[in-house]
Amino acid sequence: MYSDASASNHKNRRTGSRLWRSLPPPLQRGLKAAPVIGPLLQAHGLFPELQAQVGELHAQAAALLSQLAAAVQQSTHAAAQSQRQAQAQEQQQRLEALLRELTIGQNMQVWRNIADDPERRAVSALECFGRKGYSQNDEDGILIEIFRRIGIAHRTFVEVGVGNGLENNTALWLKQGWRGAWFEGNPHHMRFIRENFAPAIAAKQLTAVETLVNRENCSGLIADAGFTGEIDLLSIDVDGNDYYIFEQLRGITPRVVVIEYNAKFPPPLRWVIPYDPGFIWDGSDWFGASLEAMNDVFRQKGYCLVGCNVTGANAFFVRDDLVVNRFHRPGEVAAHYQPARYFLTMGLFAYLGGHPASPRGGLNPAAR
């Protein structure tokens, strides 16, 4: 192993050697001989013209050697600068990793302070059961607990707004052998679904429809996909007209509904965007409806609020006839409201889903 100094000297010698080998052989020989031959000829007064040539060659040698020294020095400087840049990049990467770990740790503490709260634990509040599988946040764990309490009837689902199918509220149930329908308006997402969920589609386990769903077409689209009457799970996440879609929906009676709400407006505030059938979310807080307003329309249709997820993104409603004695403080909006903690989505739950999601299915041995 070289020390820093010896390594630098060794590199300098290699650089000088390469430059020397690049010179023509006659010039190499002349450079070697010039310092010796010139003085000898001058001392004996021999061959004045040759003396001039040797002197010129000697001057060229001095200039070349000076250039060689400058090149070596520049090479050394460049190597040192490159080494400093590499060290700085490594230091930056370490700092970023440390900051990421600290952020995840802090966000984990925020989540656990809620999920492990003794009062919530004592009453089995749903946020205590949150877990991420294929959901964006902790919705999978909450749904598992809801169905543990009310049971599973048909193993069916409908989801409006599914992304590319790898992260939504029903992918976990699809992989449990449930049958369902996905509606998605993004053509790139739907192309991915058709290509990567082809076995489930071919087996009639999954119906995938590319369309923008609104209150005018929602009931017909779901009926055309083959779902009527009671289903186990409905999820609506279209970043805009969620309120209006559920308000107008007819033909199915979900046992459980997951729906996005706008946490910017806490109870008792009632707020909803004006209806626009072609609404596209612009990333601002102009979307959806407040939890209080959402609860109003669900109460009218016979559903009860039983919880919200910890990021303040989704609310969970269960049909009234399935609620009795199974949930804490059912229907109390203020008790279940969760404020917007969207920072937990990328700052925590993005790291809690295990390995990257695969579209490939699997088997539930108990369902065969």
Order of helices and strands: HHHHHEHEHHEHEHEHEEHH
The rough form would be described as elongated
Terminal residue distance = 63 Å
As for the CATH topology of the largest domain, it is: Rossmann fold
Verbal overview:
This protein has 368 residues and is α/β, with parallel strands linked by helices. It folds into 2 domains: 4-95; 116-367, Vaccinia Virus protein VP39 (Rossmann fold, 3-Layer(aba) Sandwich), CATH 3.40.50. Helix content is 48%, strand content 12%. It is built from 13 helices and 7 strands. Strands 3-2-1-4-5-7-6 form a 7-stranded mixed beta sheet, with helices on both faces. β6 and β7 (314-319) form a beta hairpin. The model is unreliable at 43-47 (pLDDT under 50).
Element layout with pairings:
Layout: H1 4-21, H2 25-44, H3 48-115, H4 118-122, H5 139-150, E1 156-160, H6 171-174, E2 179-184, H7 187-196, H8 198-202, E3 206-210, H9 218-224, E4 229-236, H10 242-248, E5 252-260, H11 291-300, E6 303-308, E7 314-319, H12 333-336, H13 343-347
Parallel strand pairs: 1-2, 1-4, 2-3, 4-5
Antiparallel strand pairs: 5-7, 6-7
Structure keywords:
368 residues; 7 strands; elongated; 13 helices; Rossmann fold; 2 domains; seven-stranded mixed sheet; alpha/beta; single chain
